[in-house]
């Protein structure tokens, strides 16, 4: 078969043009998700991987909620500061300000998307609900500012109020998270009493009351050791309580009386009896 010069030329043209067109198409797609940073560096971010990467770094949903609420608070505060900057009457119209707003908005969108995917219950629900109210407010603030930029009209004073309120809700969510975490910690099993630490506590307590080697000192140490033995033998099933209730009592008594095992033991016995009386 003979190929004419014209036919060969057309074939070469098709081979060369097709890859160029494909590259241009990919460039358009990448450009649609390119984030321009203030210092001029361009970074392409796959939004579908942001949440997945974060989830691999945490152990529980409550841990993730704590991280995401922190991100929401940080970016909302940054948004509020940016809005405040426009009071000079010129920042709103300048590219550097709009580039910074674009980045903060992008980060906020990601954090709010992550927040929407979290599922918690029980004592963490209050924190989640507070964060959700903050998310609604800051999302409204973003919409208002984006609309103002699109119209090139700096009419977005309401967004300042909304972002400030959102900050308060995120801060309240962090407070609620702290309370929930402390409640979780109180329900965890207390660590076993370390014999070396116990000896130090006993020596400090009894040595402060009696001379070391005296009858009073020996009696004091014996009394402390008996209290340690009593607590070591005590367990939730043994006293008829569920594990969480027993652990709360033990941890609270341990924190309240760190320098006396006798008082810790007495505290446990008193509160266990009171708890069982309410059952």
What are the salient characteristics of this protein?
elongated, mainly alpha, disordered N terminus, 3 domains, 2% strand, 11 helices, 279 residues, two-stranded antiparallel sheet, 2 strands
Structure in words:
The protein has 279 residues and is an all-alpha fold. The chain has three domains: 7-42; 45-187, no CATH class; 195-278, no CATH class. It is built from eleven helices and two strands; from the N terminus they run αββαααααααααα. The protein has a two-stranded antiparallel sheet with strand order 1-2. α3 (61-85) packs parallel to α5 and α10 packs antiparallel against α11 (261-278). The longest helix has 31 residues, at 157-187.
In short:
With 279 residues, the protein is an all-alpha fold.
Compile the SSE list and pairings.
Blueprint (H helix, E strand, L loop, with lengths): L4 H28 L1 E3 L5 E3 L2 H9 L5 H25 L9 H23 L7 H27 L5 H31 L7 H15 L5 H19 L2 H4 L3 H14 L4 H18 L1
Antiparallel strand pairs: 1-2
Helix pairs in contact: 3-4, 3-5, 3-6, 4-5, 5-6, 7-8, 8-11, 10-11
The helicity comes to: over 70%
Q: Gap between N and C termini, in Å?
A: 99 Å
Proportion of residues in extended strands = under 5%
Please state the CA-atom Rg, rounded to the nearest Å.
Answer: 32 Å
Largest sheet geometry: 2 strands, antiparallel
- What do the pLDDT scores average to? 84
**Shape by Cα distribution:** elongated
Put simply, the count of helices is 11
Low-confidence stretches: 1-55
Category by helix and strand content: mainly alpha
């Amino acid at each position: 078969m003979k190929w004419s010069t014209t036919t060969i030329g057309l074939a070469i043209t098709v081979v060369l043009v097709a890859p160029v067109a494909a590259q241009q198409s990919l460039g358009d797609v990448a450009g649609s998700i390119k984030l321009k940073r203030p210092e001029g560096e361009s970074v392409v971010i796959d939004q579908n991987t942001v949440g997945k990467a974060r989830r691999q770094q945490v152990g529980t949903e409550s841990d993730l909620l704590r991280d995401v609420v922190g991100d929401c608070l940080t970016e909302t505060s940054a948004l509020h500061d940016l809005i405040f900057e426009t009071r000079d009457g010129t920042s709103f119209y300048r590219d550097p300000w709009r580039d910074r707003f674009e980045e903060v908005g992008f980060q906020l969108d990601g954090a709010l998307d992550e927040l929407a995917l979290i599922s918690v219950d029980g004592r963490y629900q209050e924190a989640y609900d507070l964060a959700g109210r903050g998310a609604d407010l800051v999302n409204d603030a973003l919409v208002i500012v984006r609309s103002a930029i699109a119209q090139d009209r700096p009419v977005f004073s309401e967004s300042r109020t909304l972002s400030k309120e959102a900050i308060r809700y995120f801060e309240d969510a962090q407070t609620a998270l702290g309370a929930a975490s402390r409640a979780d910690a109180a329900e965890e099993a207390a660590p076993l009493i370390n014999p070396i630490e116990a000896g130090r506590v006993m020596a400090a307590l009894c040595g402060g009351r009696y001379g070391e080697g005296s009858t009073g000192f020996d009696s004091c140490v014996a009394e402390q050791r008996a209290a340690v033995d009593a607590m070591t033998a005590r367990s939730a099933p043994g006293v008829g309580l569920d594990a969480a209730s027993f652990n709360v009592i033990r941890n609270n008594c341990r924190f309240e009386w760190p320098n006396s095992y006798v008082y810790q033991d007495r505290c446990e016995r008193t509160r266990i009896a009171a708890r069982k009386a309410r059952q």
